[in-house]
Amino acid sequence: MTSTIDLNCDLGESFGPWEMGNDAAMIELATSVNVACGFHAGDADIMRKTVELAKARGVSVGAHPGYRDLHGFGRRPMPGLTSSEIENLIAYQIGALQAIATAAGHKVTHVKAHGAISNVACEDDMTARAIANAIKAVDPNLIFVVLANSKLVRAGEAANLRMAHEVFADRSYEDDGNLVSRKKPGAVLHDPKAIAERVVRMVQDGAVVSVTGKVIKMQTDTVCIHGDTHGAVEIARGLRETLSKAGITVAPFKTAH
């Protein structure tokens, strides 16, 4: 049984004066954050503000690269990209956050692909390998946050990257271990109490339960709550309290090859 778990959150997704989520409150509850790098959301100023908040709280910062699709929030597939194009767009975004983090006196420790590019990579070997290769090329010491049991894991292994295997607090799972499409009803979960109880079971059992009730064994190093999910702060707060009552410590993720 796992006695510690990392709680990660996707943040920095505002743009100019337009705000999404409550980053300051979520950073108080998370142990690692994944910062949008300007392609699907965020901009240089938002990135700097998010990194500074994380630094002040002692929270680790990771790059959260996505497709170049501000209008669609990076949640629309973009077929036709070559492996080289995918590697370059991932490397570009990691580099952008590394520069901002350095300017703020902080450091990028991990990378987690966002939205559609992550969903595609979970089922497509070429995309998964391109993401892993980009990370390795930029800095082989970066931790690759991967959807447990997906093709991202195999790509991370092939690139010899340290990985943190991720499960999702606020998303439903299909029987094959992939996330239910956001186009389907029930894909995103909102009940803080039910989510907290579900995550405790995930951590204790090392498994998730699919929408049909299938139990799927998964290595569990980190649990994600999306910063743009309605009620994210209440979900995170309730989750931390429930994990504590269950004797599970919230702490930065342990990693493995």
Would you summarize the structure shown here?
By secondary structure, the protein is an alpha/beta fold.
How would you describe what is shown here?
There is one protein chain. The strands form 2 sheets. A 7-stranded parallel barrel has the order 1-2-3-4-5-6-9, surrounded by 6 helices. The protein has a two-stranded antiparallel ribbon with strand order 7-8. The mean pLDDT is 94. Helix content is 39%, strand content 18%. The radius of gyration is 17 Å and the shape is globular. It is α/β, with parallel strands linked by helices.
List descriptors.
globular, 257 residues, seven-stranded parallel beta barrel, two-stranded antiparallel ribbon, 10 strands, 39% helix, alpha/beta
What is the topology?
Blueprint: E1 4-11, H1 23-29, E2 32-36, H2 44-57, E3 60-64, H3 83-103, E4 108-111, H4 115-121, H5 125-138, E5 143-147, H6 151-158, E6 163-168, H7 192-205, E7 207-209, E8 215-217, E9 222-226, H8 232-245, E10 249-250
Parallel strand pairs: 1-2, 1-9, 1-10, 2-3, 3-4, 4-5, 5-6, 6-9
Antiparallel strand pairs: 7-8
Helix pairs in contact: 1-2, 2-3, 3-5, 4-5, 5-6, 7-8
| Spans where pLDDT lies below 50 across 5 or more residues | none
Shape: globular
Approximately how much helix is present in the residues?
Answer: 25-40%
Strand content: 15-25%
Structural class: alpha/beta
What is the number of E strands? Answer: 10
Averaged pLDDT: 94
Radius of gyration, taken over Cα atoms and rounded to an integer in Å: 17 Å
Largest sheet: 7 strands, parallel, barrel
Distance between the termini: 20 Å
Q: Tally the helices: what do you get? A: 8
Give the SSE order as H and E letters.
EHEHEHEHHEHEHEEEHE
Q: In order across it, which strands form the biggest sheet?
A: 1-2-3-4-5-6-9
Oligomer: single chain
